[in-house]
Amino acid sequence: MSLWKEYYFPSTLKQALQLLSESPQPARIIAGGTDLLLDIQQGRQAPVHTLIDVTRIQELNRLEVDGDYLFVGAAVPIHCIADSPLVKFHARALAEGCSMIGGPQVRNVATLGGNVAHALPAADGTIGLVALDALAEIIDAEDSRLVPILDLFQGPGRSSLMLGKDILVGFRIPLRHFGQASSFQRIMRPQGVALPILNMAVWIEREGTTITQTRIAVGPSGPKPQRASTIETFLAGKPWNRETISEAIQLMRQTFSFRTSPYRATAEYRLQVCKQLFVEVFSVAWERAGEEW
User: Fold this and answer.
1) Containing structural domain, residue 190
2) Over its length of 293 residues, how does the chain's per-residue pLDDT go in tens digits?
3) Does 101 map to a domain?
4) Domain of 64: which CATH number?
5) What is the residue-wise DSSP string for the chain?
6) Do residues 188 and 281 both lie within one domain?
7) The model scores a pTM over 0.85
8) Is 130 within a domain?
């Protein structure tokens, strides 16, 4: 079975948009292809006529500070993000999440854009971006726009990106400032099974011994990536101590709706894992935020 009929390598966004609109349909954007090609091969995605490879477009390969943001292009390979000193400093949760995606061969070709566009609720790159309050930069033939990262997700494998029209250019992550830091961890089955039982990213801002504000992203705790907004609100203005930890943990049962999964674990087990993971990830971010620059 042929997975595609025509394959193009545009060198500019203008060329890519033109190919996307004028090529025989269905046409799809491809970068690493580690998700898309497997989905086509295994029948989860219908065969396509045209693949438009965006890995040679300069704008999609940028990884740099741009104004008040760290810009990470959608076609930047995962291993480059995991190893980048810029990402490790400004977006440590993203670097740590990317370091856990697949194996070395996958990380060498997979891209952050593909990780997000696949729209799975526990993608390691996505969870870091959610905690870091990233904006997705999207372009079509008429205009470009910035979209809050959570607005891209409509359900498992369903993105708000318009097929045949939109191109995901990259992500804008607010630069780290003094007193801020982030962290990412996940719990997964042994023996190389890639599905996480649970993953979590935390971003915090602290002033002395007080939590000024925080963002907590958890997956999979529903059909889409989720922020723990109830716990975030509770923690604002609190000290990070035993009493605060205990009260935050008590809020988890009403914050998350885990379900039993034969591929991951029971709902109750995942709730208990979430409590422990929260303490570990938050504590690491807390210590990092208190470090001298």
Assistant:
1) 180-289
2) 578 899 999 999 999 999 999 998 899 999 998 888 888 888 787 888 999 999 999 999 999 999 999 999 999 999 999 999 999 999 999 999 999 998 899 999 999 999 999 888 888 999 999 999 999 999 999 999 999 999 999 988 889 999 889 999 999 999 999 999 999 999 876 655 566 789 999 999 999 999 999 999 998 888 888 899 999 999 999 999 999 999 999 999 889 888 887 767 888 988 999 999 999 999 999 999 999 88
3) yes
4) 3.30.465.10
5) --S-SEEE--SSHHHHHHHHHHSPSSEEEESS-TTHHHHHHTTSS---SEEEE-TT-GGGG-EEEETTEEEEETTSBHHHHHH-HHHHHH-HHHHHHHTTSS-HHHHHH-BHHHHHHTT-TT-HHHHHHHHTT-EEEEE-SS-EEEEEGGGGEEETTEESS-TTT-EEEEEEEEPP-TTEEEEEEEEE-STT--SEEEEEEEEEEEETTEEEEEEEEEESSSSS-EE-HHHHHHHTT-B-SHHHHHHHHHTHHHH------TTS--HHHHHHHHHHHHHHHHHHHHHHHTS--
6) yes
7) yes
8) yes
